[in-house]
Amino acid sequence: MTDLLQLVFAGLAQGAVYGLVALGFVAIFAVREIVNLVQGEYAALAGLAAISAVGAGLPLLVAIIVVVPLVVGVAVLIERITIAPIKKMTPLTSIILTLGVSTAVKALMLLIWGPEAKGLPNFPGSDIVLGGVSIRSQELWVLGIAAIVGYAVIWFYEHTVRGKSLRACAEQPIAARLVGISPRTATVVAFAIAGFVGAVAGVVGSPIYLSSWTSGLTMGLKGFVAATLGGLTSLRVAMLGGLALGILENLVAGYLSSGYRDAVAFVVLVLVLLFKPHGLAGKSSGVRV
Amino acid sequence: MSDDQREKFGLTVTGLHAAYDRLAVLHGLDFHVMPGEILALVGANGAGKTSVLRSVSGLLRPTQGTVKLGDRDVTAFGAERIASIGLAHVPENRLVFPTLSVEDNLVLGGYVRRKDDGYARRREEALALFPRLADRINLAAGALSGGEQQMLAMARALMSEPSVIILDEPSLGLAPKVVGEIMSALGILRDTKGLAVLLVEQNVRAAFKVADRVMVMDRGKVVAEGTPADLASDERVRAAYLGGSSTSSSGIAGPKAQAAH
């Protein structure tokens, strides 16, 4: 029983990171039907940049405060340079395009930071044991920050005029323009949000799960799988999907073999695409009802 | 008012040409809609009525000619910019935001205005025009009936307090009673708010009832123009563009009018 709880709790923390990355996929896809495969790189980039900043002598908190907005800027810049000029964007075009961009970003990270995986120092706090389950303080940080950021993003989309305007763009792009919502601005805001959640995932996860030039690939993949659970359009399902995937991975790794860990996401992806291609909620064609 | 003065207000379109890629659809239109006037645009399918609206609201960039809102040339502006300077386009098929509530649709209708800029008053005025929406204010717009969605699309357009409103087939697929409500709302807007209204309609009878002037379009050109009474009594126009006797029962086309013509 303790084992089970231990695995579930570790899975929750890891899943929270996936959930944040998944929010990034949804934040963009819900507005523009772009599948943004650069999403995982935001996390890798933020982790690596924060490690360098700390290495250069910046306090951890300052490093994070500098790096996160920087990655948001990078996300918007990449959108301006590679996405904005495309006249007729389809989901397929976006996949090919962002796959190319993510490969380029990976190569750049390899050049700058080299091949080894590194970790940020742990956030302050000491580990605790609760009912036989040992909980790392960093895991509590991950859960707490993911909860706050996830809730904030959902609140933004559901309760602010700006957030609603992004949803309007997704639902009726023509009508959105006719009430004065610029699709350009909406896209920039969506990419900024995606960059933000990706960067947060990268820095809070780095002390446990480490950062490297390839870590964006696994993070992006798992975030994508979590996002498909909600048909790429539901923020809530994406976040919960991330948590569920994290738990499932840890159970499989703990009870079967840790070698199967990364296969879990693929199996889930295949099952979702086979049986519930529009997400677990089962609505066809996402937001465009 | 002289013509020069008149053109400082309302909507003025001069020498309008437009095309989809290389297919030209509009071949030089000129018209003016004054504040407090309803101009109806009728004609067969494919005559270019919707393209006129799209060119005016900035969804389609004209290839030639100018579009002026008041004395401001907006020809080169995009739709979202034109929306912010006083023109509201109620699109074909309503295009409400389906998963958002009626309230949120109204909020976004006023997107170009600041919320502290009389939101409560604008909302109240829009709902006064269509009281049925007030009962459904928290419902998702997609759950409304067709008629209610049309009302919402119009209420949403009014939330920006436009000086010019253009509507694309607001009566499409609606019951006659609802069409009556929509058209009388347009009359109210013209009379109380002094809006300049450009109305594209297939429902010629309804359009002729409410319009002050009518333009008949065919293959991208204006082929006839006048008051509803003038046009309804013009045998040639009736036969070719208005579907024969469809307007005669509207009470504006009698033998007398024909004789006078």
Topology:
The complex is a heterodimer of chains A (289) and B (261).
Chain A (H helix, E strand, L loop, with lengths): L1 H31 L6 H17 L4 H24 L7 H23 L14 E3 L2 E3 L1 H23 L1 H11 L1 H6 L4 H27 L5 H15 L5 H21 L5 H15 L14
Antiparallel strand pairs in A: 1-2
Chain B lengths: L2 H4 L4 E10 L2 E11 L3 E7 L5 H9 L6 E6 L2 E2 L5 H5 L3 E4 L11 H8 L9 H11 L1 H5 L10 H13 L5 E5 L7 H18 L2 E5 L3 H7 L2 E6 L2 E6 L1 H5 L2 H7 L13 H6 L1
Parallel strand pairs in B: 3-8, 3-9, 6-7, 7-8
Antiparallel strand pairs in B: 1-2, 1-4, 4-5, 9-10
The structural domain count of chain B equals 1
Can you give the helix content of chain B as a percent range?
A: 25-40%
Radius of gyration of chain A, whole Å: 18 Å
Major sheet details of chain A: 2 strands, antiparallel
- Could you tell me the strand content of chain B as a percent range? 15-25%
**Hey, roughly how much beta strand do the residues of chain A contain?**
under 5%
Offer a concise description of the structure:
The complex is a heterodimer of chains A (289) and B (261). Chain A has 289 residues and is mostly helical.
Report what the structure shows.
The complex is a heterodimer of chains A (289) and B (261). With 289 residues, chain A is an all-alpha fold. Helix content of chain A is 74%, strand content 2%. In chain A, a hairpin with a 2-residue loop joins strand 1 and strand 2. In chain A, helix 5 packs antiparallel against helix 8 (183-209). Chain B is of the alpha/beta class and 261 residues long. Chain B has one domain: P-loop containing nucleotide triphosphate hydrolases (Rossmann fold, 3-Layer(aba) Sandwich). Chain B has helices spanning 3-6, 49-57, 79-83, 102-109, 119-129, 131-135, 146-158, 176-193, 204-210, 228-232, 235-241, 255-260, and strands at residues 11-20, 23-33, 37-43, 64-69, 72-73, 87-90, 164-168, 196-200, 213-218, 221-226. In chain B, the strands form two sheets. Chain B has a six-stranded mixed β-sheet, sandwiched between helices. In chain B, helix 5 (119-129) packs antiparallel against helix 7 (146-158) and helix 8 packs parallel to helix 9 (204-210). Chain B starts with a helix and ends with a helix. Residues 244-261 of chain B have low confidence and may be disordered.
